[in-house]
Amino acid sequence: MMKRTYTALFVTLALLLCARQSVSQQTASSGFEGTIVKFGTGEPVSKVHVELQGGAETQVTTTESDGKFYFPNLPPGTYRILARRDGYWPAEYGQRWVDGPGQPIQLAAGQQKSDIQVVMTKGAVISGRVTDRLGRPLTGARVREMKPWIQENQ
Predict the structure, then answer these.
(1) pTM to 2 decimals?
(2) Which fold has domain 29-120?
């Protein structure tokens, strides 16, 4: 009888410890913290629309004047961080060139990643007016942007 009581007590304690450990793992805070910077200068970029894809739903935030963004209290998983702002090319964490693919980020339970940096490149605008010989605007004119280059001395 005494042996059964100790066995029951041992099993109960083991279950309580397992449940407590499971709850502490679920409540462990995970998250991302990073900065959006301008290509070439490393200056922080403010008012950037930052999107976190992954997990149960997409989350969105906006950077302050220091270019910082935060995504706290996240479940473990694989995430992508995308950044958009007028006047800049869209950017994603881990890109190696403008408009190139980004890299996913793995987040473990209780892990805080605070060294994330997303680099944004300023865009450009070409504007003008297309006219005929008499200076009248042409409608439906085809306009193409071209880059000069030299190939085999031509």
Answers:
(1) 0.65
(2) Immunoglobulin-like (2.60.40)
